[in-house]
Amino acid sequence: MIILDLLFYTFLAVVSVQVLYFTLIFGKFAFLKEKDVSNKNIPVSVIICAKNEAENLKKFLPSVINQEYPDFQIVLINDASYDDTLEVMEDFANKYNHIKIVNVVNNEAFWANKKYALTLGIKAAKHEYLLFTDADCQPVSKHWISKMSANFSNSKSIVLGYGAYFKIKNSFLNKLIRFETLLTALQYFSFAKNGMPYMGVGRNLAYKKQAFFNANGFMDHMYIRSGDDDLFINQIANKNNTEICISQDSFTESIPKTTYKDWIKQKRRHITTASYYKTKHKSLLAIFYMSQLLFWILAIVLLFTLFKWQFVLSLIVLRFIIQFILYGKASKKLNERDLVAYIPVLELFLIGMQLSIFISNLISKPKHWK
After folding, report:
1. What b/e string do you get for 208-219 counting C-beta neighbours within 10 Å, with b at 16 or more?
2. Which residue ranges does UniProt annotate as crossing the membrane (predicted)?
């Protein structure tokens, strides 16, 4: 009985942590009203780093080329590809004079390091304002550049955007990937609005060139193969220099993984990178994950034993009501409303997958970005 009492009060504490996290942190973004920001029409360099992406460039690059924006350059970085990526880039460059190609060959000191290739691309960009996406991404509208760049100002040198994934019907894996993407975005947007920006995603991210050079680029974490987006933002972002962009015209969509093996491989890289975040960010993210894990474990144990089951059930219902409200509002903002009905199942699967990936990373760590 003493053990069950201890488990019950631990469960009460866990639910309290979850509710506080949902309301105080997530609520800042969930109830945020989108600002009406006027277009600035500042010159922008769009930077796309590609490694063996010939087919994706053929398919998605036109959506960037055809943006309705008065002054933008496209910097295409060929990162030592061994397919026809360079040839595809050259075909586009021959047709459009605002495309610049940076051809990167493998360097022994920076072998298979995307940060080295990106650094060369950033140096080659002719404009101060840089907008990043990937070769397998496409903007959802012709106003992507204008919506993202409108958030720059004298004080705001970083703009965090949303990079969604294409929807695949009748695919649980696709729902799981998009739910994880939604939750990650909810976290980094919410942290930013609470004055604690900690990451962005390279599928949709913008910052000033000067901010890159002021930080000595990626040098502080060049030895880490991944993290050209989240680690760099974790390094330079603060409450004064960071803005978020949640206009649905500013979103990008990417090709999602279609097998669990490929997705897990991708997430292993992401989770490895997160271990290098600032201590305060790691602590807050760890508290949230542990509270999720303990919530499910303790809820199942206490319900199974029927110990104070009325109180336990009431706490579970309270937690889910608050979660559905806040996640529902966030998913509406990010155009992911079809996921709301599956939240409990997706959350449980995601917690399990993250735990298994964390354990795998303790044994061996991924080394290459592709």
Report:
1. bbebbeeeebbe
2. 6-31, 284-303, 309-327, 339-363
Sign of CA pseudo-dihedral 350, 351, 356, 362? positive
- Cα(299)–Cα(147) distance, rounded to whole angstroms? 43
pLDDT in tens, 171-190: 999 999 999 999 999 999 99
Helices then strands, each counted (H, E), the chain: 13, 10
* Same-domain pairing of 136 and 90: yes
User: Cα(40)–Cα(260) distance, rounded to whole angstroms?
Assistant: 42
Range of the domain at 240: 44-262
* CATH number, domain containing residue 122: 3.90.550.10
Composition of the chain by helix, strand, coil, percent to 5: 55, 10, 30
Q: Are 242 and 327 found together in one domain?
A: no
**Which among 122, 125, 134, 120 is positioned nearest to 80, based on CA atoms?**
120
Q: What is the pLDDT of residues 226-268, one digit of tens each?
A: 889 999 999 999 999 999 999 999 999 999 999 988 888 878 7
Judge contact between 276 and 228, C-beta under 8 A: no
Considering the domain architecture, whether residues 209 and 327 belong to the same structural domain is answered as no
Asked if residue 254 lies in contact with residue 165, where contact means CB atoms within 8 angstroms, the answer is yes
Residue tagged 């469960």 (tokens):
11
Is the model's pLDDT at 129 over the cut of 50? yes
What is the β-pairing status of strands 205-208 and 158-160?
antiparallel
Rounded to 5°, the CA angle 149-153-156 comes to: 95
Q: Taking the complete model, does pTM exceed 0.85, yes or no?
A: yes
Q: CA 6, CA 337: separation in Å to the nearest integer?
A: 38
Does 321 lie in the same domain as 182? no
Q: Which of 221, 237, 236, 215 is nearest to 272 (CA)?
A: 221
User: Residue 108 corresponds to which tokens in the numbers above?
Assistant: 């022994």
**Same domain assignment for residues 175 and 65:** yes
In sequence order, what are the residues at sequence separation of 6 or more whose Cβ sits closer than 8 angstroms to the Cβ of residue 41? Answer: 69, 70, 71, 146, 149
Looking up tokens 């790691």, which residue turns up? 282
pLDDT score of 369: 47
- What does the pLDDT look like over 187-216, one tens digit per residue? 999 999 999 999 999 999 999 999 999 999
